[in-house]
Amino acid sequence: MTDDVVVLRYGHRPGRDDRMTTHVGLTARALGADRVVLPDNAGQSAETIRDITDRFGGPFAVELRDDQRAYTRNWEGTVVHLTMYGERVQDVETDIRADSVDVDAPLLVVVGGEKVPFDFYEEADYNVGVTNQPHSEVAGLAVFLDRLFEGAELEREWEDADRVVLPQATGKKVVDPAEAAAEAGERGEDDDGGD
């Protein structure tokens, strides 16, 4: 698969969209995208995403650009625009996967943060809706990426992490990678030796 599944966050209103823009980037990272492109006025969100990537692993890149319309227009690959007005994700996900993931073509996923100009609708190869109902763009992105990767992104292994979250039924456990590897080894020995 290509290393180019890119999420472009169109528009950012400082002070109002900081948290949502950050969450678009974190969702892109956690659910399989390789990079997020943010508006050039979203520097604080970019720094937060980079910090999380440094601590919890990558690879994942963050880019700030002031030419988002041109960036989309000049994209050499498939462009998917997530919008509540688009075709149902369940009706087009196989076609999108065939157009991009299965043939190693770069995929750009456009997620609006403010009113998206009609150009984006016209230039997109797919305008895709997740439920065709008003809801969070973060939720739409998460569902779209999960369907795109067919759940494989949930098994991703992270490189160069300083911290690793160990899944727990209750409580929170965050350890360094060496401790996580040791605990995984202990669980593997128990699984192999017990019955």
Automatic annotation (TrEMBL):
<dbReference type="InterPro" id="IPR029028">
    <property type="entry name" value="Alpha/beta_knot_MTases"/>
</dbReference>
<protein>
    <recommendedName>
        <fullName>tRNA (cytidine(56)-2'-O)-methyltransferase</fullName>
        <ecNumber>2.1.1.206</ecNumber>
    </recommendedName>
</protein>
<comment type="subunit">
    <text>Homodimer.</text>
</comment>
<comment type="function">
    <text>Specifically catalyzes the AdoMet-dependent 2'-O-ribose methylation of cytidine at position 56 in tRNAs.</text>
</comment>
<dbReference type="Pfam" id="PF01994">
    <property type="entry name" value="Trm56"/>
</dbReference>
<feature type="binding site">
    <location>
        <begin position="112"/>
        <end position="116"/>
    </location>
    <ligand>
        <name>S-adenosyl-L-methionine</name>
    </ligand>
</feature>
<keyword id="KW-0963">Cytoplasm</keyword>
<feature type="binding site">
    <location>
        <position position="82"/>
    </location>
    <ligand>
        <name>S-adenosyl-L-methionine</name>
    </ligand>
</feature>
<keyword id="KW-0949">S-adenosyl-L-methionine</keyword>
<comment type="similarity">
    <text>Belongs to the aTrm56 family.</text>
</comment>
<feature type="region of interest" description="Disordered">
    <location>
        <begin position="169"/>
        <end position="195"/>
    </location>
</feature>
<keyword id="KW-0489">Methyltransferase</keyword>
<dbReference type="InterPro" id="IPR002845">
    <property type="entry name" value="tRNA_mtfrase_aTrm56"/>
</dbReference>
<dbReference type="GO" id="GO:0106059">
    <property type="term" value="F:tRNA (cytidine(56)-2'-O)-methyltransferase activity"/>
</dbReference>
<dbReference type="InterPro" id="IPR029026">
    <property type="entry name" value="tRNA_m1G_MTases_N"/>
</dbReference>
<keyword id="KW-0819">tRNA processing</keyword>
<keyword id="KW-0808">Transferase</keyword>
<dbReference type="GO" id="GO:0005737">
    <property type="term" value="C:cytoplasm"/>
</dbReference>
<dbReference type="GO" id="GO:0002128">
    <property type="term" value="P:tRNA nucleoside ribose methylation"/>
</dbReference>
